Amino acid sequence: MVFLKCRQKDCTNKTVFKENYCFIHTKNKEKLTNEIHDYIKKNKIIKNLNFAFVPFDNIDFSKKEIIFSRFYKCSFKNANFSKTSLYSSFFDFTDLENSDFSSSSIRFVVFGGANLNNTNFSEVNVFSSNFIGAQIENTKFKDADLSYSRFIGAKIKNTTFYNCNLKKAYFQNMNFDDLSIKTSNYQEAILKDCCNGDTKIKGYIE
Amino acid sequence: MKIYTALNPESLSNIYLIISDNKNYGVLIDPGSFSQNVYQMIKNTSVDIKKIIITHNGPEQINGIPLIKKIFNADIYAYDEIILDYETITVRNDSLIDMEEMNFKIIETPVHTYDSISILTNDAIFIGDIFQAGSLSSFIEKKEPSKYEFNIIKNKILSLTDNIIIYPGQGPATTLEIERKFNPYFINL
Fold first, then answer.
1. Which of A184, B44, B153, B154 keeps 20 to 30 A from A98, CA to CA?
2. Residue-range definition of the domain harbouring residue B132
3. ipTM
4. Measured between CB atoms, does B172 come within 8 Å of chain A?
5. Residues B100-155: pLDDT tens digits?
6. Cβ of B175 and A92 within 8 Å?
């Protein structure tokens, strides 16, 4: 992923979509947003594009392939990612509240610092992905493969991990306030200073 | 430029393939194995591997080299002069490696091992095992880097611009902004 620098003097952002400026320095943001939404609607494969700061609330990404793309600080409230394939893409510091990732495939994807409140991760296949520092409240991980993913520094509250594969998933300083963690193979996870209610829980590495 | 990742099935370390936009040539970083998935990754992109860059001389970084060298006439770039039985093109701080429109700048980062280097290209940096997303180089060994080593990370990596993407030798990718804000070992640096 290499994106060109925004032409605005002293701006360190990258050019958005097929423009010469970043989204912040685009003059007609509404027109560009509509163009991008239209592009998403018409294309099954979204590849090698930068969408930093673009709003995607209520947009349907279901069954699409998202590859080598960057969505830094985008808003995806109520967005639909069900049955979507995401590979090597960046959703860092995005707002994904109420979005749906059910039955999606997520490989080498970064959600660091994202808001994942009320998000549905049922039957997802997540591999080696980054949830570091994410805010995860009232979110459902059900029958999900979360192996080799990292949740260090994530703020997890009222979130279920029901029947998930947590092999080498990495959690640190976390209180799983929901008993559902016991239905997953947490013994194979890396749990540093983690507890379930008042009880310390142990993974394969403490 | 596109960056593909394959997992070394034995050590679960990352093997990166970087290809230029015109898709002729590729650079491999840390080919610790040449297993079926690595072979498939290269085959799918149909690129000619011209260069291999090694972040440090360890089995998880080099064990795939003999098989790769049987197929591709690739030069090996590393801190050490010899890797396995192959002569390398040695690199030091600020060494530049160019290929088509891609260029790679070497930063010496002797944290995990004396010969550890990081590789900066455009908005991406490959850091080998000097740290991982949200943690240090190894969470199994409980050895923390010394103050000297923390300073190397701070001055040579964390001082880069926020939008740099970090590709570690183990685990998922991350960004400098994520590491500065959430890596418990770096928050107070």
1. A184
2. 2-182
3. 0.93
4. yes
5. 889 999 999 998 889 999 999 988 999 999 999 998 876 555 567 788 888 999 99
6. yes
C-alpha A111 chain-centroid distance: 4
Mutation site for B-interface testing, chosen from A14, A88, A115, A174 by largest number of B Cβ within 10 Å: A88
Q: CA A83, CA A4: separation in Å to the nearest integer?
A: 31
Say if CB B138 and CB B123 are below 8 A apart. no
Q: Is residue B127 part of a domain?
A: yes
How confident is the model over B159-174, as pLDDT tens digits? 998 889 999 999 999 9
Q: Which residues of chain A have pLDDT under 50?
A: none
Mean pLDDT, residues B71-78: 97
CB contact under 8 A, B171 and A148: yes
CATH code (residue B142): 3.60.15.10
pLDDT of B53 higher than 80:
yes
The Cα–Cα gap between B46 and B179 comes to 34
CB contact under 8 A, B139 and A205: yes
pLDDT of residue A206: 58
Q: What CA–CA distances, in Å, run from A60 to A83, A110, B62, B131? A: 11, 20, 43, 37
**What Rg value do the Cα atoms of chain A yield, rounded?**
18
**What domains are defined for chain A?**
46-200 (2.160.20.80)
